[in-house]
Amino acid sequence: MSRPGAGRVTSWRLxxxxxxxxxxxARGRSVLVLVMxxxxxxxxxxxxxxxQTQSVSSVEGLDRRLGSAAAQVVVPAEGRPMIQAFDPYxxxxxxxxxxEPPAAADISAALGGARLVVERTxxxxxxxxxxxxxxxxxxxxxxxxxxxxxxxxxxxxxxQDAGEVVVNRALLDKGYAVAxxxxxxxxxxxxxxIVGVAESPELRTYPYVAGPVGSLGVSAAYAGGPTWLAxxxxxxxxxxxxxxxxxxxxxxxxxxxxxxxxxxVPAEIRSWSSGSDNAVIAAVALVVxxxxxxxxxxxxxxxxxxxxxxxxxxxxxAASGGTPAQTRRVVLAGGVVLGGAAAVLGVILGIGAxxxxxxxxxxxxxxxxxxxxxxxxHLLGVAAFGLASAVLAAVVPAVIASRQDVxxxxxxxxxxxxxxxxxxIAGVLLIGGAVAMAVFGTTSGDTGAFLIAxxxxxxxxxxxxxxxxxxxxxxxxxxxxxxxxRYAARDAARHRTRTVPAVAAVAATxxxxxxxxxxxxxxxxxNRGTYTPTLAMGQAAVTGYGLKPAKWDEIxxxxxxxxxxxxxxxxxxxxxxxxxxxxxxxHHRGPLLETMTENFGSSILxxxxxxxxxxxxxxxDRARADEVLARGGVVAFTDDxxxxxxxxxxxxxxxxxxxxxxxxxxxxxxxxxAAIVPPxxxxxxxxxxxxxxxxxxxxxxxxxxxxxxxxxxxAVSRNAGFYVERGYQADQGTKIVxxxxxxxxxxxxxxxxxxxxxxxxxxxxxxxxxxxxxxASPRRRRGVAASYALVVGFVGAVLGAxxxxxxxxxxxxPLTAPAYSDTGPFLDVPWLMILGLVVxxxxxxxxxxxxxxxxxxxxxxxxx
Amino acid sequence: MSxxxxxxxxxxxxxxxxxxxxxxxxxxxxxxxGELVAVMGPSGSGKSTLLTLAGGLDAPTSGTxxxxxxxxxxxxxxxxxxxxxxxxxxxxxxxxxxxxxxxxENVALPLELDGVRTRTARAAARTALDEVGIxxxxxxxPDHMSGGQQQRVAIARAVVGDRRLILADEPTGALDSxxxxxxxxxxxxxxxxxxxxxLVTHEARHAAWADRVVFLRDGxxxxxxxxxxxEGLLESGVTR
Amino acid sequence: MSVKQALLALxxxxxxxxxxxxxxxxxxxxxxxxxxxGQVYTTLTRLERDGLVEADGADGEGHVIYRVxxxxxxxxxxxxxxxxxxxxxxxxxxAIKLALAVTMPxxxxxxxxxxxxxxxxxxxxxxxxxKRDGGNDLAWGLVLDSLVFAAxxxxxxLDHCEARLRRAALEKPAVPAPVDAPEVAR
Lengths: 864, 240, 186
Known about the structure:
The complex is a heterotrimer.
Chain A: H1 4-25, H2 27-54, H3 62-66, E1 71-74, E2 82-84, E3 92-94, H4 104-110, E4 115-127, E5 132-140, E6 152-156, E7 164-167, H5 169-172, E8 193-199, E9 208-211, E10 227-231, H6 237-246, E11 249-252, H7 253-257, H8 267-309, H9 311-319, H10 324-364, H11 376-402, H12 406-410, H13 422-442, H14 448-477, H15 483-494, H16 496-529, E12 540-544, H17 549-562, E13 567-574, E14 582-584, E15 604-606, H18 619-630, E16 634-638, E17 646-651, E18 654-664, E19 675-677, H19 679-685, E20 689-697, H20 703-716, E21 720-724, H21 732-763, H22 765-773, H23 780-816, H24 831-852
Parallel strand pairs in A: 5-9, 7-8, 15-19, 16-18
Antiparallel strand pairs in A: 1-10, 1-11, 2-3, 4-5, 4-10, 6-8, 7-9, 12-20, 12-21, 13-15, 13-20, 14-17, 16-19, 17-18
Helix pairs in contact in A: 1-10, 2-8, 2-10, 2-11, 8-11, 8-14, 8-16, 8-21, 10-11, 13-14, 13-23, 14-15, 14-16, 14-23, 15-23, 16-21, 16-23, 17-20, 21-23, 21-24, 23-24
Chain B: E1 3-14, E2 21-32, E3 36-40, H1 47-54, E4 62-67, E5 70-71, H2 77-86, E6 88-91, H3 103-113, H4 118-131, H5 147-159, E7 165-169, H6 177-192, E8 196-201, H7 204-207, E9 212-217, E10 220-225, H8 229-234
Parallel strand pairs in B: 3-8, 3-9, 6-7, 7-8
Antiparallel strand pairs in B: 1-2, 1-4, 4-5, 9-10
Helix pairs in contact in B: 3-4, 3-5, 4-5, 5-6
Chain C: H1 2-12, E1 16-17, H2 18-29, H3 37-49, E2 53-58, E3 64-68, H4 70-81, H5 92-103, H6 109-133, H7 138-171
């Protein structure tokens, strides 16, 4: 003690030695902690390795993009001086006045006389059995040495002239074979012969075709500007900047492989990336904090039990002169030992898992991954996270252990101290702060979401202080309960250092799920609430614009072929621009409709009755409109109520006054047309009519029919589409998100509950032995375990649900009431999910715990 | 006299081969209603094994253990557990109360485990606590009671529900001699009231409370004293 | 000898005559140590000689009544505050018996011990039963306790003897020391 520094080192060494022995002795508990901490570390490590492997960095992607060239020079269409990041893909912009774009010779000269090879990248549509498929394309002389590495020839040979191309396996799978002619969409498109199979180093399942310049008919303009591969010496950053000044962007091998200092990146470009960085950092920080909190809470009970198991040794240590700091250190050292082991284990296994998963994930990806990549700096952070979570989990047990009542421990009393009266007040204050922060977050625009997420963390922290009081309250109320739950509730309250983190872990999980659940369902409510039907409910129609009658005939044939049971009704529209026919109400000033789309090829339909496909017309309005149309009148759609009985219809100098029905669209639909005129009126005005849409009626259209018909129609024309109005369809993604949320919540809840329960059971060994001795049947152990799980799960879920409402309700405001829209905020609380979480999940967890518990009581008569 | 507990030529062997330990060898033992029998012997003599066998917490390697005429081997685990709730009461050296339950709840435990309604069970438990003289402490938790009070609770738990076999394993081991004597007096009273008691101890002074003392050495009964309870009362003089 | 001090202590409660003293002594000690009247009067004479008691006339039936003197009171006080000297171990006969038994071939020491233990245990049970039935008489209870603890000590001593014999038998198997259970205690 005379040398404090040396004393501390020795003390830590002693503490670590004790902790390591304790960890070895209590294997089950150690494994539990190891798994709990190593799993997230493993998962994040594996994901990080996969992401890093999957993403192709500038350096890794050089050969894919440059072949063996020293640089790729692109002259964008702007015709102005350019500024760019080291890799022009990371950012480039024009800056300065228009100037003459540089010619190939100028560029070659700037590159010190490098040889330039023309390259044109772009895309083509190739005909397939069903219609057309898109393919990425590149035109370059593949036999030029500079192109080596751009494609990877697997069979056949490289094209020799503009009549030949190579394609990848994915394109062959669309119905082509080597020696076929490639049928490229376009009037004067060439149809080159496929002479070989070559894989793109980038695209795996996406069609790809490559051939010499001219073989695919890709115009230079379409390809984003003239592009060259430069064969020659290394291109320095100075040269790149010179070429920028000339109006070109340059991808230089030398610059990417050995970049100049970051300060060399032009300020304009640099500011691009930093704009989103803050948000990303904030989001990552939030996720890390939440995850840390969750892991700490999950691992906490294990350390609490560990500290309690050691309490006698610790009390003896204190009795023989150990300081509270030394006691603390012994428990903390447990966190260091287990956390360190878990972090190392997690990272190593994570790298292994990543390595094993790369080929699996590759199969799902349309592009080729980069080389296997282990991002050591990231992983160091991940490992630090693991270590930190274990140490943090050990902090509270360590502090409690250092303050324990030595006499009580040595006398064998085994209960926690009564809770501090101040802690619930602190908890209420924190939660109050969280509410305030959340409310403030609803009014502060872009940063609101982060404030609200921060409020979530604050609320969960506040809840931590309230959990002990609630647990004790539950124990007080337990007096009337049957034996097992009464025992579980009281025991939980007695061992709060073990119970509180477990309850809090469940609560934090439930809070997160409830908050996200409210956010997701409210978002969904907004989507549903602002959904605009394209057609009347249940109707199907082919719509298109600018189609010649022959195309419509072709489409009609396709419809009859694909949906043979359907009736096809022609929806006629007034040809030409909708504005050529104008309708005004005699007593109404201003336009009848403020805004509108032209869903049926024109704003004015020509029909003797309101076509069934027109959405947003109530049944009464439809009857009224049909009646007026039958009398030779017109139907005009309006935003406001118009009481006129007639309308003035004009086209050029023609003008008629006819009876009119003024109809307002039902709420929530966006006007798809302006008016319907009967054929007689159209004829009188001399308006030509043409097909505006084909209504497909008389049968239910299956998803497969819809898909087939859509493909057939897209083969006829790109400007036609087939649509079936099925009402609002919940986004598949939303459902998946909800399922994943529920699943994740269930897993974490199960994890938290299981940990606490099994720790409690191992702690309760003496009690279980007593129960056995006074005649409890072996099944009783299950009952106690299930009750324990129920107490932890239920208390946690209720608290979590309450706390989850704070950020949940708040987040709906920025989420569903964007500043630029006058809708919302939408609020939809997923009561069923919350009920399931609060009532169902604890019951299911209790059931699982009960069933998975060994039904065996310890058969010991006397415990030493 | 009817035997409440009867061990018939019981042998219990722990382990196998080189580590084989014969805890009990061909022991026959009876405890009758109204009788308190002490089993004495040094540690390792097999006295605790005898008690765990009698309570159905362990099964003999050979021989039979019967409680109230029922061979415990014919009952399943569940049946033996029921036996412990309804016929056999255990008292341990370290009390073995459940700290999460109050005194009255601890006492009511066997009844509740047996499916008796909570209210009824608690009423019976309160009566049992009154009988051991600590009715006023019924709602305390064990942590807030002295050792003697806790052991009284344990005895109340062992006798509640009119059980006829009380198995006590060093019940006074953790108590001072005066308190220990009170506990023995309680046991004695229960036995005089008709229960059969088996008291395992290594202290002669405590064994002397029994009607009969059985000496165990290395798993074998080597001697027995005071086979007739009535006889001893006649000679109240000093015998030596 | 403590009879002297015991009579003095009784007289300190008030003047009594010889027969009364004897009755009271027996009642308080539960007839554990029987006294005859002659012994009482001899003792009283000796006490009077030493100036610790004095005769104080006679009652109507001619019994001489004794009362304690100031010196007598001092003597009683001193007696109560002086520990009883541990002279002459009372179990000498048993000790000698055992000592002889171990050295003489052909004697089963184990059964000697067990017989003694059973006898002592039976006595202990009797004392305990007396105690149980004795009600609330504290003085009598304390006397019984002294007997109980003495008997217990004897049994523990016998246990100890047995353990030592077993160990000796283990270490020197040649020496015949038959014990009931030849197997070694764990």
